Amino acid sequence: MNVFGIGLPEIAVIAGLALVVFGPKRLPELGRTLGKTLKGLQSASTEFEREVQKAMNENEDSNQEKTKDPER
């Protein structure tokens, strides 16, 4: 298992350090917050990608119309 170039042993060490630093009571709260943040970033990225794709399609449609009707 390799996530962001980090293997399973490294993830275990990071999780252990997080447990020591934040304590077992705050760790689930931090996990939820991180998950919500990542979900928000993913939805923003998807929306941005959708807008770029829409702009590219509009540009292609405009170029096709110009080549069909050269008198414009």
What does this structure look like?
This protein has 72 residues and is mainly α. Helices cover 85% and strands 6% of the residues. It contains 1 helix and 2 strands. A hairpin with a 2-residue loop joins β1 and β2. The protein is elongated, with a radius of gyration of 23 Å.
Write the layout of secondary structure elements.
Layout: E1 2-3, E2 6-7, H1 8-68
Antiparallel strand pairs: 1-2
Q: What features would you highlight for this structure?
A:
72 residues; two-stranded antiparallel ribbon; elongated; mainly alpha; 1 helix
Structural class: mainly alpha
Q: Describe the biggest sheet?
A: 2 strands, antiparallel
Helicity level:
over 70%
* Tally of alpha and pi helices: 1
What is the CA-atom radius of gyration, in angstroms? 23 Å
Low-confidence stretches: none
The end-to-end span amounts to 57 Å
Q: What's the domain count?
A: 1
Count of individual beta strands: 2
Element order: H for helix, E for strand? EEH
- In terms of DSSP E residues, the strand content is 5-15%
Mean pLDDT across the residues is 83
| Shape label | elongated
What's the arrangement of strands in the largest beta sheet?
Answer: 1-2
